[in-house]
Every structure is written in structure tokens, then in C-alpha cells.
Amino acid sequence: MCGILGGLNTDFDEASLGRLRHRGPDQQRLVHEPAPGHGTLTFGQTRLNIVDRRNIDLPVRVADSRIVFNGQIYNHPELRRELSGLGWRFVTNTDTEVALAAYLQWGVECLQRFNGMFALAIWDGRRFFCARDRMGKKPFFYRVGLDHFEFASEIKAFSRLEFTTHELFDLFEFCFNEHTLYRDILALRPGHYLVYDPTKGTCYTRSYWDIEHSIGRRISDERTAVNTFIELLEDSVRLRLRADVPVSLFLAGGLDSSIIAKLGGVEEAFTCQFDEFRETINEEKYVRDLAVRLGIRVNFVRPTRAQFLIDLRPMSYHLEMPTGSFSVFPLYRLAKAAQERGYKVVLSGEGSDELFAGYARNELLMGDPRQAEGDKQRHYAAMLDRYHGGGLDRFCRMASRSGLVGAGLMKMFLTDHWSARRSMLENVCYLETRIFLQPLLQMADRMCMAHGVENRCPFLDHRLVEFAFSLDDSLRYRDGVGKWIVHRAAEKLLPRGCLVLQRPVKDGLPTPVNLWMHGTHSFDRKHWNALMTAECIKSVLGRPELEPIVHTAPAESLVPYATASPVESLFVLDGEVR
């Protein structure tokens, strides 16, 4: 995992690279080189040493080509062997060098061979070739002008930043695809590559991957589907355990991270539990039960209001753009706890709910809301009025935070992503996976990398994504319940009788911000998004003031930063809690 920046005739300097140091605290280097006839090339990289922990020459070079790379190609050992058989010789053990050789050998087709999360930029002696992983786990921003091209892992690396609003952000409460809140700064879309050719004066992007609609026969046999799902997820976890450092896990009290805990055999995990939610959203009892059964040491992170007031400014600085989620703060605290325990890599369960129709809002959307019954339906009864209607209109009314007017405008942005060839469930899962997952991945990346921690998501292996969209609808949603196949896999994999298998409702990872700030238990995000937007603008555009503000809070809430992370450890040995 790294931070990268560079381009042609850029404004980047050592201070720019320094603003990415949290992404790669182990090594960094900035290089300026002449590009005859075009000006000056810049390559900058901060490196988190996870694979091949030695310092290496940066940027990695082969002949006239150079690469800066962020992320991880999990199948790089297999690609290295294949490329070695074709005559390539390697100086390091890194996946970065493999990525460059793969591009020089296969061109843009190399992207189809990569299994991983990455953002990369290659100068091949004539032009820049840049690419982002299929799901958009790793960030890539760029700015292009008449005679210059700049790219970076995070927006804060750029100079001359100017905030600008966007109707899309007002509607969705987050940005997706190429859109940002900073004038002239664009994001490279997930599953796309970019080519900047200074000789021709051109810059274009192309898609190299998307979720294809399965035409014809679908997987409908239950046993085949469950066994294939387990095989794919088991291999995905195996690949994401590849590291020259220990790997931990963010463990919630739900099926997804519990399955990963079982398949990964991790020895230590981290769980967030707000004391304010002990009676309503209690993760702890489910995690403790599973930890005893699997022999996992769990660190319970208990964030507080005082910590939130201290962390608000640095969280906003790292986030850069609001994501419309309350989970920013607990993720920030989880990553901090993992880093303090010496971890550079964690696994997590992102993606399962999007792929397999696991969100309660979509379980309700699949059925007739006027006939909703059961614990989950009663738990979300206040949402039911949004579900009358059908298709895209119903989805937009559910997703809109601006009433029916907002739903109508939202539909304009989503119409091109809704296909008559897909079923209702397929369309909902497609939108959740390709659009609404983007801000959650942004949040996970920024909050983890703020502490130099790499977050790996086994459910987002592209093979699992493609498998999910090859399933018959009944294997994802059945009898009013989503994630049918995940439930059946959990029953086969997890210890019999564990509490997580009996959990009727699994909430997300909310923060009691409204309780702390307004004295209400509501999860309405209106005030939260306004606060985060203001803080992101102040912290990014006013970044010289950041450092003293990180350690400052109102007097009545000030907690010494070094002691503001109460982490309780649960030691499990031989089936006993110690």
C-alpha cells in the first residue's frame, strides 16, 4: 500500500508528497526528470512495506519505463512465474515490478490478469498509462490541462485547490465515478484506465471491466452454488493473507466478517462497541461467543464523545469528501487500534451486502411493503412508506434524502445504470455494488490509510462479484430474506450453535453522533453531512493549520491524545476467556 503522485509539468514538490506520507510511512521518494520536447516528468511515492519489506529504488524502472503503484496484486507470485518463463528478470520481490513487466508484456490486457486492488501510473517512454482496480478500492485523482497532467492518490496532494458543489453530491450525499467536490479534479472511475499522450495532446479513459449481465442459463442448483461460493471465498481469503507482515481482522457481530474469521484463521481481531448502543446494537455478545469458539483474541474498541471531538478534524482531512455515512469515526478508531497493536494489514467484510442483497432496505424493497411482517420488518417499519411503487422509482424513493423531488432527480442519474434485461433484484444489487459501494470504499481506504493500515476485502474479489451476478435470484433472496447463499455457507462453516447464526437483525456500524450533538437517538444524517462537508473543506483547503488543530478540542471534552483509545482485550485460550 502506498501513496503516489506524478505527471508532466506538475506543481508537485516534497511538501505534496509529505501530505501522502500516512499512506506509506516506511519509505518515500520524489523524482523530477526531463521529458525532451514536453517538459518535466514527476514521480513520487510513499511506501508501506508489506511485500518485500526492504527499501527499494523508487520509482521502479525497466529500461525507459517507470511505475508508481498503490495497492496489492494478490496473484503476483503466479504472474511473476509466468513472466519469468517469458524471459523477464526481476530485481525485487514486489508486485510493483510485476505490474510494470506485465504491462510491457501484455499492454492493457494485463489488467484482466490482475487479481487485486490497485491504482497505478506507468510512463512507457511516450505516454502515461494509468489504471484503477475493478471495484475502486484504491483511489486515483487527476487534473489535466493544455500542457500538463497531474495525478495523485489523494486530493490534498494537489495545489491550487478550489471547492465546488455539485447537484449529484446534494442528492446522494456522496460523490461517485469521476465526480469530486474540487474544481478540475477528476477521479478515475473503477474498472477504467486512462491514457495521456503529450505528443498527440490527448487524454482519454476507457472501461476494461464491468459486471456483465448473464444471458441464458443461470446457476440455480443450491448445492453447486453454495459449494462454489465457499471455494471462491476461501481462495479469496487465502490470497488476501499474502503478506510479509501479520494480518488481523475487523470483526463485527455479523455473518460476513465471522466467515472470514473462520476461513482466515486470524489470531487477533478488532471490534467496535459504543457503550451508548449496548441495549440496541450489541456487537459484543456475538463477537465474544464466536471468539471463544474460534480461539481469537478480540480487542474491543469503545469510542467516546471526547475522542470524536478530538478526531473530527483529522478524520475530515483524511476523508476529503463526505461519504454520507456515520461509520467514519468507528473505522478511524478501529484502524488506530490495529496500528497501535502493530498491524499493517486487516481483512474486513465490505461488499457482501451489496452483492447478495443483504441490506434490510433492499430485502423490504423486493417484497410487498404493505404485507411486511417479522422482526426485521418491524425494526425498519419507519422506512416502509418509501417502498410503494416498483422498479427504479421505488429504489430512488428509498435512496433519496430529499423526498419525492430528490427521487425524481436521482432517477436521472441512475437511469443509464438500470437495465430492462435485469431483474429487479439484479438491478438493485448492480446499483448497490457499482454506485453506492463507492463512498464506503473511499471511507474504508481513507480511515485505514490515515494510520498506515491496509484494508483488504475478500468479498470484493472480482471472481466472487461475477459469480454473484451469475446466480438465480432465489439464491440471493428468498422468503423475504437476502444473502440466502451467505446464510447457507455460514451454516456449513461456522461452529454449530454460535449466536451469530441466530441473529435476527444486523445493523451497520453507526455512530451516536446525533445523541452526542443533539440529544436524539435519530440516525438522520442531515446535520452530520453538513458538519462533515464544512470540516472537509476547512481541513483540506486550510491544511497548513491542520497539525495544531489535530491536538486541540473544547476544554470540557479534552482528552490527552496518547490515552484517548481505550481498548479492552479478550484473551481466548483452550475455549476459556482469560
Give me the Rg, rounded: 23 Å
Number of helices: 22
Proportion of beta-strand residues: 15-25%
Major sheet size, sense and barrel closure: 6 strands, antiparallel
Share of helix among residues?
Answer: 25-40%
Main sheet: strand order = 2-3-1-9-8-10
The general outline is globular
By helix and strand content, what is the structural category? alpha+beta
Give me the count of strands: 22
* Average pLDDT over all residues: 88
Unreliable sequence segments: 544-578
Q: Kindly, what is the distance between the CA atoms of the first and last residues, rounded to a whole number of angstroms?
A: 35 Å
Could you explain the architecture of this structure?
By secondary structure, this protein is of the alpha+beta class. Helix content is 37%, strand content 18%. It contains 22 helices and 22 strands. The chain has a six-stranded antiparallel β-sheet. α6 crosses α19, α9 crosses α21 (526-541) and α10 (328-340) runs parallel beside α17. The two termini are 35 Å apart. Mean pLDDT is 88; it is low at 544-578.
